[in-house]
Design brief:
TIM Barrel; 2 domains; 6-stranded parallel sheet; globular; about 575 residues; alpha/beta; 19 helices; 9-stranded mixed sheet
Length: about 575
């Protein structure tokens, strides 16, 4: 007897072939039938009129910490995701443990926007190795399948201590790092991640440890990755944001070639119809050099949410960093002071503000979310509109709202709508074999965005409303493409014998809901979260973990380990 039969659904199997209306039968966590009739089932679910697809695979998340206090990895499964990968950008919780907990917690809070209170209250930090850490997670019970890369900054900190920041490693220290990485890979780490991003700073404001690594250090660690089956590389260099230099293009190709593994980088933004093409040429160079370099890209346009509570991005305005070094109470007093307001505004309007100064068009900021009762009337309106109604100055109006909300006001810069031509360019990028859709950063930047919405946007607005690609191709990009890049065994397709990671959704209603603040993190911390519409059922390993937008409490997910759960993918 089957455990579950999904009856009458429109099956899109993940490979890109045309959809078919048929049944899917599941037993012992595997798909055993794709076709009508067959065995009886303990549970039959009528999914007539709905799409049955493989569970979506998200290659770039930061759920490393959250899974310890939230085994559902919310909200990703509510958007159809059944498999996540963490440990990206060189930032991982292991192998560093208790002796490095203060530094790593502050680093993760600063660079990935995970509230420090949650990291301190939600983790015990008592692990001593990657094996110890991952074993705890495996034994805890998780709702999704999850795999984790070994992070360069964490490894560097373990080997070099405080010298990891800003110091080149000696040959002996590089070999010590190689040994730690080898041990982590043997314990199932999915590969190696690193960052040279100029935006990545630790809790003290210094460049994160991986930014001090020489090319020699990086290439040696990549060689170690090549020793272990089923592994991957992930890297960020400055050109990921602004276009690669020749040296960066050479380095990415050399890293892939040294490991004989694909390397993916985050994130390719398509803000115009031309500039991204130069970044994709790095993939062409890698291919010619015997490597493989893949860009991760988000389907929706980039957006940003600002608050005076975290100060991320705003703290780059001239003279503003000091403000965000104050406690909340001190910051509120400062923002009430007319002299401080004048000083801050003058700094923001100065030529030294550079490109960030565009944010200082205060009248263009839209109030996305408020918390004080008297501010509720302002949601959805621009500061300029509010100032016109009240007769006040735009900056004073902004700060009056922010102070009344005790700094929690959500603000968004007004962005011009993307042209049809730009949307077509984005769609071309999604289907390019040099890219993979999925740079969500889910679990990170919790005060600024909820990147988990990328999948429901792609199968919803991008397909249904904009007609940018077929539903079959959208599903393939979310399932088979990322799963095959990472060599994940038996996941990413609806096929007999494959793992029963399945998502059932209504193509007419699927899509993300608006981001709202949820006060549900350990230590009383908050996060932005967006739920989804249109997802009827989400199954992981044959067990339903979400139904009609609500989690069931089931935790059938597997901790994925390199070699055991993945096969080697070479350039």
């Amino acid at each position: 007897m089957l455990d579950v039969r999904l009856v009458g659904g429109t099956v899109i199997d993940g490979t890109g072939v045309p959809r078919t209306v048929t049944d899917v039968g599941v037993r012992d966590g595997r798909i055993v039938e794709v076709g009508s009739g067959g065995e009886t089932a303990a549970r039959t679910i009528d999914v007539t009129g709905l799409v049955v697809a493989p569970g979506f695979v998200d290659l770039h998340t930061h759920y490393d910490a959250q899974l310890f206090w939230d085994p559902t990895a919310s909200p990703s499964p509510l958007h159809g995701v059944t498999t996540v990968f963490g440990g990206n950008c060189g930032f991982a919780l292991a192998p560093a443990g208790a002796s490095h907990s203060e530094y790593l917690a502050r680093l993760m809070s600063r660079v990935e926007g995970i509230p420090l209170a949650a990291l301190e209250a939600g983790l015990d930090w008592e692990w001593t190795s990657f094996a110890d850490w991952s074993g705890r997670l495996e034994g805890a019970g998780i709702a999704v399948n999850a795999g984790f890369l070994a992070g360069h900054s964490s490894i560097r900190r373990v080997v070099m201590g405080e010298e990891a920041v800003g110091q080149e490693a000696s040959p002996a220290q590089i070999e010590a790092m190689a040994a730690v990485l080898r041990e982590s890979l043997s314990a199932g780490a999915m590969g190696f991640s690193t960052s040279r991003a100029p935006t990545h700073h630790d809790g003290d404001g210094n460049p994160v440890p991986s930014r001090a690594a020489t090319d020699e250090e990086l290439l040696r660690l990549c060689e170690i990755v090549g020793e272990r089956a089923g592994t991957q590389l992930e890297a960020i260099v400055p050109g990921c944001l602004n276009g690669f230099t020749r040296e960066e293009t050479e380095l990415l190709a050399a890293m892939s070639k040294a490991a004989q593994r694909p390397l993916n980088w985050n994130v390719l933004g398509v803000g115009d119809t031309e500039s991204y093409k130069g970044q994709l040429s790095a993939s062409d160079h890698a291919r010619e050099s015997g490597g493989r370099v893949i860009a991760l890209t988000l389907p929706q346009g980039m957006s940003i949410r600002l608050t005076f509570l975290s100060g991320m991005v705003l703290d780059a305005l001239p003279g503003w960093a000091e403000l965000f070094g104050l406690t909340v109470a001190e910051r509120l007093r400062a923002l009430r002071d007319p002299a401080t307001r004048t000083r801050l505004n003058e700094g923001a309007q100065s030529p030294d503000a550079g490109i960030i100064g565009a944010l200082a068009r205060w009248e263009r900021l839209t109030v996305i979310e408020t918390f004080a009762d008297e501010n509720a009337q302002f949601e959805g309106r621009t500061i300029g509109e509010i100032a016109n109604d009240t007769g006040g100055d735009a900056f004073d109006t902004l700060l009056d709202i922010v102070v009344a909300d005790e700094l929690r006001t959500g603000l968004s810069p007004t962005m011009p709508p993307a042209s049809d031509e730009l949307w077509r360019a984005r769609a071309d990028v999604w289907s390019d074999d040099r890219t993979v859709v999925g740079a969500s950063d889910a679990g990170a930047h919790l005060d600024m965005m909820c990147g988990a919405t990328y999948s429901s946007f792609l199968v919803g607005e991008a397909v249904r409303d904009r007609g940018l690609l077929s539903l079959e191709e959208a599903v393939r990009q979310l399932t088979d493409v990322p799963a095959r890049l990472y060599g994940v065994r038996d996941r990413g397709r609806v096929a007999s014998g494959w793992c029963a990671d399945l998502v059932v959704f209504d193509p007419e209603t699927v899509g993300p809901r608006a981001e709202r603040t949820h006060d549900d993190l350990p230590g009383g911390a908050s996060r932005l979260m967006a739920e989804a519409d249109g997802f009827a059922h989400v199954l992981v390993n044959g067990v339903e973990i979400a139904s009609s937008g609500q989690f069931t409490g089931a935790t059938p997910g597997h901790l994925l380990r390199s070699g055991r759960d993945t096969e080697t993918v070479t350039p």
